[in-house]
Amino acid sequence: MNDQKGKISSEPTKGLDLSSLFNVAAQALAANQSSLNQADTENQNHGDNMVQAFNMISQVMANQHGASPSQQLNSASQYLSQHATGGSAQVYSQGLAQAAQQFQGQSSVTPDNAMTLIQSLLGGGSQPAAQGGGDLLGSLLGGGQSSGQSSGQSSSGAGDLLGSLLGGQTASQGSGQGQSGLDLGDIVNAGMAFMNAKQQGQDNMQAALSALMSAGPLGQKPHRQQSGQIVANALLQAVASMGKPK
């Protein structure tokens, strides 16, 4: 008897349905629609706009079912840019466009590569994930793992985290400083956001995503960061759920 089939690396059944994935985020936003509207002190409509935007994304992807991830992401980006209301939708449109570039040539989004999608989406196009030195999330998680897994003391990992962040950025400094969209201040702020999120009880992944948002356009307004956290948590939970064996 051959029991090797569980070790095959490329199983089509493991691909995630992008429409369903973004629909989970839309539902999570709808559940928090009123509080997001209240958090928007400028226009009081951020929750409405976010629910509209993610419903649009999910619908466009449903209409593109069977197309490659890159095509679905690109179509959703273009539709969002042309039809959605509010500045936040434009940020997510840019994030979707970046994700489309990341998934060019790939046949599916799987639990193994879904973090690339989430990072691009929440980064709002502010940093190319493919650029080794610009992988802020990877740097955060690298620093976070070393501090969080040892004894759980956040303070002891602060130096390691900053070193990881700075080390991760060094390679990109020589090749093209302006391309990553991040300067030293952004990196330090992201590191501080990571440590603060850890102290508030978030795990490494959630804290890293909070820091990622703080360094990009979603971090410029509190209500955007609030909705971004809802999106991040919903997508992480959906990926984990969809990735479980049936």
In terms of topology, how is this protein built?
Layout: H1 18-31, H2 33-39, H3 46-63, H4 69-83, H5 87-102, H6 114-123, H7 136-148, H8 154-176, H9 184-199, H10 204-214, H11 222-242
Helix pairs in contact: 1-3, 1-11, 2-3, 3-4, 4-5, 5-6, 6-11, 7-8, 7-10, 8-9, 9-10, 10-11
Keywords:
67% helix, 246 residues
What does this structure look like?
The protein is mostly helical and 246 residues long. It folds into two domains: 16-126, no CATH class; 132-215, no CATH class. The chain is 67% helix and 0% strand. The chain has eleven helices and no strands. Helix 2 crosses helix 3. Residues 5-13, 128-134, 143-159 and 168-180 have low confidence and may be disordered.
Short description:
With 246 residues, the chain is mostly helical. The protein has helices spanning 18-31, 33-39, 46-63, 69-83, 87-102, 114-123, 136-148, 154-176, 184-199, 204-214, 222-242.
